[in-house]
Write a structure and sequence with these properties.
Blueprint lengths: L2 E3 L6 E5 L4 H12 L5 E4 L5 H12 L3 E6 L2 E5 L13 E2 L4 H11 L6 E4 L10 H9 L3 E4 H4 L1 E7 L8 E3 L5 H11 L6 E4 L7 H8 L4 E4 L2 E4 L10 E3 L4 H13 L4 E8 L6 H9 L2 E10 L2 E9 L7 E2 L11 H9 L3 E5 L12 H10 L5 E3 L4 E5 L6 E4 L4 H13 L3 E4 L11 H11 L5
Parallel strand pairs: 2-15, 3-14, 6-7, 10-11, 18-19, 22-23
Antiparallel strand pairs: 1-23, 3-5, 4-5, 7-9, 8-9, 11-13, 12-13, 15-17, 16-17, 19-21, 20-21
Helix pairs in contact: 1-2, 1-3, 1-7, 3-6, 4-6, 8-10, 8-12, 10-12
InterPro entries: Enolpyruvate_Tfrase_dom, Enolpyruvate_Tfrase_sf, EPSP_synthase, EPSP_synthase_CS, RNA3'P_cycl/enolpyr_Trfase_a/b
Enzyme class: transferase
Subcellular location: Cytoplasm
Amino acid sequence: MKEVVKPARKLAGEIAVPGDKSISHRSVMLAGLADSPVTICNFLASADCLSTVACMQALGVKVDRPGEDELAILGNGLYGLSEPEEVLDAGNSGTTIRLLTGILAGQPFFSVLSGDGSLRRRPMARVITPLSKMGCRIYGREGSRYAPLAIVPADGIHGIDYTMPVASAQVKSALLFAGMFADGPTRITEPYISRDHSERMLQTFGAKVTRSGLIVKIAPVQELSAPRTIDVPGDISSAAFWLVAATIIPGSRLRLTNVGINPTRTGIIDILRRMGADIEITNQRQAGEEPVADLVVSAAELSGTTVEGEIIPRLIDEIPVLAVAALFAKGRTVISGAEELRVKETDRLKAITLELAKMGARIEETVDGLIIDGPQRLEAAVCQSHDDHRMAMALAIAGLAAGGVEIEEAACVAISYPRFFAHIAALQEAAGGSR
């Protein structure tokens, strides 16, 4: 599917961004391990999250969908999953395959996890290696480096102390989930604190999870006590596209409602504000263990900055659209320590450099980041999404702020934001159309 994005006069109005992808995944998995009904509201019904739903159903969890963004889940308890008859298909979802590996490693049955071609090229040893230290038996392609993953019942899972070489919420979550089935506590030391949705969700379900500095610990779990309802906040990674768009398109002003502002995810707000963005956080409140708020963003002039170190895990998914913002900022922006982007749905550092260059951008790609001198002028172009949802949306924002863009393979936005292009059209109409 091709999508043509016309340049915007300005953006104005209000958007309720879709539910948080990370929280949607985790809520379905843990609800499936409880034994009382759970209703999930504002669930993100995207391709990735629906892959998690399909896998949990294949494991015997009852899932009904009374509304477009609502799920009713009834699990069979922590030890009540059933052996799947087929290979579990995680689609394009790294979260699905890595977190489910931690859960399935503690089950008394054989299972196989796989996904699409892109997912089968993404590294899995980072999860398999520490899980193997716990006694889990997991085997994959090319020396257990890639999916498909065969998971064999373990003789027993042991709690371990593990120091993570790279901050990764997916790896940490897989170990925490496996730690529920261990014979003793599991302690994980992170180099930097990565997103902590798993810890918060586990606490919501009654698991004993504690943190001391960079160390997070989980005690063995006998059962999960499910809340009746989980309200999923709006996804700040989706909100990030509008934060950048409204900042760099003159005359714009947007209100983004019910956005999750978990401090392990707000790096994009911190960096944009450091660059000079006008972002107001209002109506702060709680949705379960997660903080939420409304965000009001108005057009502003930006200046370049340095993005590195401990903030990188807090905005790793937002770097493609942050690169777009940097093109409109005065001075140099340097992003480093983001080598994780090379093993996402595509090599995002290479892809964003290549595709924005088609629009006239000059970006220096480094081993672990980008160097961008601005401001620059972008022209209309035909660009490839590389079948990567965040690439497609970042290119769309660049097109809105410049001369427009035609994006090939744009249907991939359904992975995290199915109504993204519909929201662009609605915002442009509210602001008087395109240029």
